[in-house]
Amino acid sequence: MNFTPALIYGFSERMPEFVGSRRMATALVISAIFWLLAWYIGTVYTMVALWGSTDDFAHGFLIAPISGWLIWHRRHAIDAVEFVPDFRALPVLGVVGLSWLLGHLAGANVVEHFAIVLMVPLTVWAILGHRLIRALAFPLCFLLFAVPFGKFLEAPLMEYTADFTVAALKLSGIPVYREGQFFMIPSGSWSVVEACSGLRYLIASLTVGVLYAYLFYRSFKRRAMFIVLSLVAPIVANWIRAYLIVIIGHVVGRKYAVGIDHLIYGWLFFAFVVLLMFWIGSFWREDLEVHPVSPAPLAVRFQSSPIALLVATSAVAGIVTLWPQAAERMQPARQRSQPALYAPSATGAWRPVSAGLTDWNPRFVGASAYVHKAYDKGTSGAGLYVAYYRNQGPGSQLISSANTLAANSDPVWRNIGETRRAIDLDHALFPVTEATLRAKSNTLHVWYCYWVAGQYVANPYWAKILQAKSLLFGRGDDAAVVIVYAPGEDGPETTEPVLRDFLPAVLPAITQSLERARQMGSDRQL
Predict the structure, then answer these.
(1) What is the pLDDT of residue 12?
(2) In the chain, helix, strand, coil percent, each to 5?
(3) Cα–Cα distance between 445 and 502 in angstroms, integer?
(4) Would the CA dihedral through 249, 254, 257, 258 be positive or negative?
């Protein structure tokens, strides 16, 4: 006996309720996403601000529209999926929210940004279910490309670009003298700065490459191959671009290789590389036309009850609001008092001098207080710089890309290399980052580290973690950078003994001054 007419008739009676439930579910998940963005509007603002202020991340404005188009592209698959809340997503949403809180306390914007973007698919998962997440996995995960991420790659990319350019110039028969990211050839001096790292090309190429691989390939192997190509091609292309710019400046003239010509040449070259990638990828392209998915038999289609949808949405809303409220309560009251720092007086044979050793000043912006003092001991000289941070926030953070020993745009000083190491002081290892700064008539050997939560650390990421821990336990966000340096033309071999003698002499007084400043701030807060 054929029951099909009866089944269709039975479902037609339930059709208005079924469609209304799907519309309700869609409205609830959209409302939940807007609720999420409203509570984390500060994080969203910092992310959008980076899109607008940094060319490396300008593509972020396009990610959400592309994701929306991809979701529309999968609309037939969505029609075949029941919307059933999945409460397994709630603990995952809670963990991601906790990650946002820790990132917020540490001032780690990238952690906040990843957390807020990940909360969007988790919200969809919790309210509409795992079947829909499977159908929309790529469009929702593609939102991660909106996160301004990758600045840490800038330094190694600059290093590799300089390595290739110098090697290629030598192979071309052009003599080269190199110091860090700076090198000289007979026709003039060149430097590999942030804009020459190729980071913007790499990020743009990876974003386009992942999208292309999803749309035009089906097999995992072919997608992986094209994504690898989209990673390697812009790096190698940027090396060639940097080399050709130097060659143009050497042969034709610098005015043809710098300024606006430099940028136009770079982007035109990148566009050519992307088109070349697409042409190569077309040889193993697969048909990715998405066909409508046959829906399940109408009579057995199941739709969650409105009560379950409301419960899931309410749970998501509660978890979402928990972390910003916790952050507000954990953030210490903004202290009006400014920390008082004191340069150590005479320590052992080291005596403070009124004149500075050089005209160099570290670039640490937004510090609450700082001291910069020179000392001498017979024929040896050394300098001390301490910058103290309190009430940290945008524009006044200790760990920030704006804070550096010498900016690449500095007309006098250039940083020719840094490395982290541990110094043996009084039979204990003391962490520092070692750097060499050079000017036309002077060279500085520098050691620096961070003081956070009463500890000295050289790793900036570990310093961020210690700062988050300190705020989590209500101990404030006071932190500082401590820098010692010594001039010397003969390299680290002559200046390192000076610093090994100077640092232990001033470190106890520095630590005492930092602890006193933090304690006074805590007393006023209480």
Answers:
(1) 39
(2) 55, 15, 25
(3) 13
(4) positive
d(CA 34, CA 32) in angstroms, rounded, equals: 5
Report phi then psi at 346, rounded to 5. -55, 125
Same domain, 403 and 324: no
Into how many domains does the chain fold?
3
Pair 521, 378 in one domain: yes
Question: Same structural domain for residues 86 and 166?
Answer: no
- At 473, the pLDDT band (50, 70, 90 cuts) reads confident
User: Residue 257's pLDDT is what?
Assistant: 63
**Domain match, 42 and 71 both:** yes
Residue type, 313: T
Angle at 47 between CA 42 and CA 50, to 5 degrees: 125
Domain of 9?
4-146+288-330
Residue 142: its pLDDT value, please? 96
160 and 47 within one domain: no
Give yes or no: residues 477 and 367 share one domain. yes
Quick: pLDDT tens for 239-252: 988 898 888 888 88
What is the Cα–Cα distance from 327 to 472, expressed in whole angstroms?
A: 9
Query: What is the identity of the amino acid at 509?
Result: A
Does residue 301 share a domain with residue 224?
Answer: no
For tokens 């309720």, what's the residue? 17
Residues 118 and 12 reside in one and the same domain: yes
Indicate the helix (H) or strand (E) that contains 404. Answer: none
pLDDT at 484: 96
Average pLDDT for the chain: 85
Cα–Cα distance measured from residue 349 to residue 140, given in angstroms and rounded to the nearest whole number: 64
Two structure tokens written together for 469: 């821990």
Burial of 298 (0-12, 13-18, 19+ CB in 10 A): middle
Q: How confident is the model at residue 3 (pLDDT cuts 50, 70, 90)?
A: very low
